Amino acid sequence: xxxxxxxxxxxxxxxxxxxxxxxxxxxxxxxxxxxxxxxxxxxxxxxxxxxxxxxxxxxxxxxxxxxxxxxxxxxxxxxxxxxxxxxxxxxxxxxxxxxxxxxxxxxxxxxxxxxxxxxxxxxxxxxxxxxxxxxxxxxxxxxxxxxxxxxxxxxxxxxxxxxxxxxxxxxxxxxxxxxxxxxxxxxxxxxxxxx
Length: 195
What we know:
Layout: H1 8-15, H2 23-33, E1 41-45, H3 51-60, E2 65-70, E3 81-85, H4 93-97, E4 104-109, H5 119-140, E5 141-152, H6 157-165, E6 168-174, E7 185-193
Parallel strand pairs: 1-2, 1-4, 2-3, 4-5
Antiparallel strand pairs: 5-7, 6-7
């Protein structure tokens, strides 16, 4: 079934000068859970086209720092952000994060696999990206920090949730209002990282 790419959230993003409609997913998460504050350091995984970094840039202000990483180049200039075009599976992340000294206050992952249309394959690939994001989080998130991660719902949903619960005091699941009806994505919002 086809969907309208240029829906309400698409036009709202354009009118507010955001790079993509996905910004409203992060905005809803932040309004509900208060994960972003002035001066925070944020690692944005799967950052292209950059709307989450734009939102973080505004919320963290001049004292904040954002490091956005994606396979696709990000065509934005933000005063407190640095963007890297790289594959996280092969990137020397230790060297990359030194550009914005860790630990990070917040790590975000809006990473998604290139979809095949085969549900079980897409879900498995989504989980692999979530596992990668969690590995990075375990290395670079500060104690008490927050982690947000997108997952395509599937069989491994509950086991991944339990894994997150082992590292965070609170793990919530949210399907933001701006998520397209046909999408299987949900977001884990993980608060108060315990090292």
